[in-house]
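Re: that backbone. Tokens:
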């Protein structure tokens, strides 16, 4: 089981120090959230059963791939991830270039978690059709993967249309950064099975996961995949026994937040490393 940390609940001014601490303590990865804009009039939630957005419209937001490029210079070994990047809100030229930059500057440590998004108001504020976001996401993924791997790319699709372009340099890894597909529905499972290094469900209970992981394996086999697919779940904090239960359910990475307020993040990580990481 890999154990990462999530910076979503940490004040932005502490992100660098917390990243350095996590790197030194032996956490496998660190993850940051993404939004382009949160309109004042917003509704909905990424979490099943919630009727309101879990974030206010004036929440401080930094561009996640720019932040990860910065954190790459402050760390040495820890993987750097987005949980999750709303790939459909950007032109794939923008996504491919920003991800490439973070990938190159980190020496190939980028884990690009991507999703189709849940906040309708954000899509509408950008003049995009929320109800057609799935097709736009699929096309954006296709274009990015081609830009990262082919010497010359031309594309004429429903959402993006351009003549031949070159895109250099290429990423550290052949084919581009690892893609971790966020979401719970059939489309997310399909993307994870066909183009994803991993799957990042948000609304699956521990009891639901074995069946979903088995379904993911069936889809991957049907697609001709031979490599295992990582399964990443974000939690608060966990005990060694809870980690074992998640592993038995098919989870390969847990993203933890073993603190309640920003000023306790470093102490919380040190305690977790002492009491849990050291026993894995």
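Recovered sequence:
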């Amino acid at each position: 089981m890999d154990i990462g940390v999530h910076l979503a609940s940490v004040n932005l001014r502490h992100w660098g120090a917390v990243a350095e601490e996590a790197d030194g303590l032996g956490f496998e990865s660190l993850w940051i959230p993404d939004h382009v804009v949160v309109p004042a009039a917003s509704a909905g939630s990424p979490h099943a059963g919630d009727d309101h957005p879990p974030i206010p419209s004036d929440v401080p937001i930094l561009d996640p791939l720019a932040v990860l490029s910065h954190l790459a210079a402050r760390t040495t070994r820890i993987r750097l991830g987005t949980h999750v990047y709303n790939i459909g809100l950007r032109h794939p030229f923008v996504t491919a270039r920003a991800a490439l930059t973070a990938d190159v500057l980190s020496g190939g440590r980028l884990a690009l978690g991507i999703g189709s998004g849940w906040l309708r108001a954000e899509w509408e504020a950008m003049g995009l059709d929320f109800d057609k976001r799935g097709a736009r996401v699929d096309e954006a993924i296709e274009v990015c993967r081609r830009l990262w791997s082919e010497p010359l790319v031309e594309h004429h699709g429903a959402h993006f249309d351009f003549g031949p372009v070159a895109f250099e340099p290429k990423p550290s890894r052949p084919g581009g950064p690892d893609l971790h597909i966020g979401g719970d529905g059939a489309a997310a499972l399909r993307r994870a099975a066909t183009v994803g290094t991993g799957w990042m469900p948000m609304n699956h209970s521990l009891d639901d996961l074995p069946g979903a992981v088995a379904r993911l394996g069936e889809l991957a086999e049907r697609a001709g995949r031979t490599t295992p697919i990582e399964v990443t779940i974000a939690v608060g904090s966990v005990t060694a026994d809870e980690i074992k239960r998640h592993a038995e359910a098919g989870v390969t990475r847990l993203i933890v937040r073993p603190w309640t307020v920003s000023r306790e993040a470093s102490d919380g990580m040190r305690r977790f490393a002492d009491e849990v990481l050291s026993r894995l």
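The CA atoms of residues 193 and 218 lie 9 Å apart. The longest helix spans residues 133-149.
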